[in-house]
């Protein structure tokens, strides 16, 4: 039988040859493939069944046009995507992203990551992702509604509560989910479990809004505790000022950390006294404004254009919560110089491969996205459960389950790290722990 190194190299070549321009997808897949080598050496049956060739190829890719009209009556056409990547352990599950950068490479990387992330939650959900290159920035509520209605008019043909259950991601929050859900219901009648992240009045789950950010801190607490350390008193940088960043900020502060930054795509604010949560929420959740406005309202804060990862201050913990590839090698080296001990990723793939190599070489303890930010999709799966049984659980109940799930995810990654003697590589540990469940399911189901 072919040896593991050759098998992985051949697979990488096939992927590069098939989709030479999909750099984000290649980056996500190659990292996972490299970390699975020890498992493949131990389990030749996965190589024999060529499981990985199936794992890296989506079950289905749907691409469609999304025509919509702006408030002045002009017509626009955007591109919509849904990648139904893997349903070995449950219906496709993953968010929808609205951002001008969205293309097939980005949706495929996100969908691929979602497979192993969803597996790590221990819940029965497969992997998928979707979105559009529509830019919600500066659009009126009516424009957002018309776009969402057009998007769902096409998407509704391909989703279902036991088939594919989308949710939010960048640019898709409660407002957009409401418009998407309304259009689905208009076309198909009531189907509670068709989307997650719904409003509480029509089948949403308590704690879904908070879940990714809170989950990140529950994961971080488990990771830090295992190193004999605590979050209390630590100085923290957060990037982003969206859903994940805001609730990571809230939970980190509740745990006694001093969070000194938040950011958006234009720049960041630095407040050595600690970021004021209520001001960020007002600017971002209520006014949908820019983070620059924070510095006009809080006298101890300063606003800077550019990346928060270029700010040179002493701090302990980095929580990137904005977008992919926001941290490069130079910025990772600055973290080392600044004394950072832990990085836990709220965003998907925020650190590029060279940055991750710096973390590992410098013994920064690194919590990768698919483990650290799995709380959002985990509570989405709990929303699906509540929809199925037509009940609503209390905030406390959902939050306690979320905490357990995140602690388990850390533990599974740490156990895999020990089993395969990876030397505190919780990224490889998460990849392996997520993969093993999916691989067993795929093997059991025959040629898939
Ligand atoms: N919402 C969720 O439940 C989950 C989100 N994620 C990931 O978390 C990240 C953030 O998502 P959300 O908070 O939901 O989105 P959001 O749309 O609520 O917020 C995104 C934030 O990132 C900022 N941002 C976007 N591009 C940027 C750039 N190039 N540089 C600096 N800041 C930038 C935006 O200004 C905004 O503040 C994404 O990577 C997403 O895939 C991961 C798991 C679940
Ligand atoms: O809740 C969901 O299904 C979406 C979560 C998501 O998109 C993610 O984990 O990146």
From TrEMBL:
InterPro entries: Aminoacid_DH-like_N_sf, Glu/Leu/Phe/Val/Trp_DH, Glu/Leu/Phe/Val/Trp_DH_C, Glu/Leu/Phe/Val/Trp_DH_dimer, Glu/Leu/Phe/Val_DH_AS, Glu_DH, Glu_Leu_Phe_Val_DH, NAD(P)-bd_dom_sf
Phosphoprotein among keywords: no
MF GO annotations: glutamate dehydrogenase (NADP+) activity; nucleotide binding
Pfam families in alphabetical order: ELFV_dehydrog, ELFV_dehydrog_N
CDD domains recorded: NAD_bind_2_Glu_DH
UniProt: substrate binding residues: 93, 114, 117, 168, 380
Gene Ontology, cellular component aspect: cytosol
Keyword line: NAD, Nucleotide-binding, Oxidoreductase
UniProt key word Iron: no
Site residues by UniProt (Important for catalysis): 169
TM annotation in the entry: none
Glutamate/phenylalanine/leucine/valine/L-tryptophan dehydrogenase C-terminal domain location: 205-446
Domain of life, source organism: Bacteria
Residues the record lists as binding NAD(+): 212, 243
Any GO BP annotation: glutamate biosynthetic process
Catalytic center residues: 129
Assembly, per entry: Homohexamer.
Family named by the database record: Belongs to the Glu/Leu/Phe/Val dehydrogenases family.
NCBIfam families named among the record's database cross-references: PRK09414.1
Record protein name field: Glutamate dehydrogenase
Source species: Companilactobacillus mindensis DSM 14500
């Amino acid at each position: 039988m072919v040896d593991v190194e050759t098998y992985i190299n051949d697979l990488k070549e096939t992927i590069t040859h098939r989709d030479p321009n999909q750099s984000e997808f290649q980056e996500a897949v190659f990292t996972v493939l490299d970390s699975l080598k020890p498992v493949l050496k131990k389990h030749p049956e996965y190589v024999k069944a060529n499981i990985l060739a199936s794992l890296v190829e989506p079950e289905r890719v749907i691409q469609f046009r999304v025509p919509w009209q702006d408030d002045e009556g002009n017509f626009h056409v955007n591109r919509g995507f849904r990648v139904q990547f893997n349903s070995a352990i449950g219906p496709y599950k993953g968010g929808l992203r609205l951002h001008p950068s969205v293309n097939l490479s980005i949706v495929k990387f996100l969908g691929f990551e979602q497979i192993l992330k969803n597996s790590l939650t221990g819940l029965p959900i497969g992997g998928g992702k979707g979105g559009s290159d529509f830019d919600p920035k500066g659009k009126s509520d009516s424009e957002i509604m018309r776009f969402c209605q057009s998007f769902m008019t096409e998407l509704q043909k391909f989703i279902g509560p036991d088939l594919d259950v989308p949710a939010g991601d960048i640019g898709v929050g409660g407002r957009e989910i409401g418009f998407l859900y309304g259009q689905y219901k208009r076309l198909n009648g009531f189907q509670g479990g068709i989307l997650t992240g719904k409003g509480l009045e029509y089948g949403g789950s308590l704690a879904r809004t908070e879940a990714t950010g809170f989950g990140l801190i529950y994961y971080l607490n488990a990771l830090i505790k295992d190193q004999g350390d605590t979050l209390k008193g630590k100085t923290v940088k957060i990037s982003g000022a969206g859903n994940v960043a805001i609730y990571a900020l809230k939970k980190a502060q509740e745990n006694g950390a001093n969070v000194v930054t938040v950011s958006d795509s234009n720049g960041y604010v630095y407040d050595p006294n600690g970021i004021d949560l209520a001001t960020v929420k007002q600017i971002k959740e209520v006014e949908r404004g820019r983070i620059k406005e924070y510095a006009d309202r809080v006298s101890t804060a300063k606003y800077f254009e550019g990346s928060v990862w270029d700010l040179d201050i002493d701090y302990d913990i980095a929580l990137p919560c904005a977008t992919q590839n926001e941290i490069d090698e130079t910025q990772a080296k600055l973290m080392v110089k600044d004394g950072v001990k832990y990085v836990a990723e709220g965003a998907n793939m925020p650190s590029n491969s060279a940055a991750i190599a710096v973390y590992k070489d410098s013994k920064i303890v690194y919590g990768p996205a698919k483990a650290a930010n799995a709380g959002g999709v985990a509570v989405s799966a709990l929303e699906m459960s509540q929809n199925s049984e037509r009940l609503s659980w209390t905030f406390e109940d959902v939050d306690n389950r979320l905490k357990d799930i995140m602690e388990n995810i850390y533990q599974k990654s740490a156990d895999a790290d020990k089993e395969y003697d990876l030397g505190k590589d919780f990224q490889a540990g998460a990849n392996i722990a997520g993969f093993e469940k999916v691989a067993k399911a795929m093997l059991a189901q025959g040629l898939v």
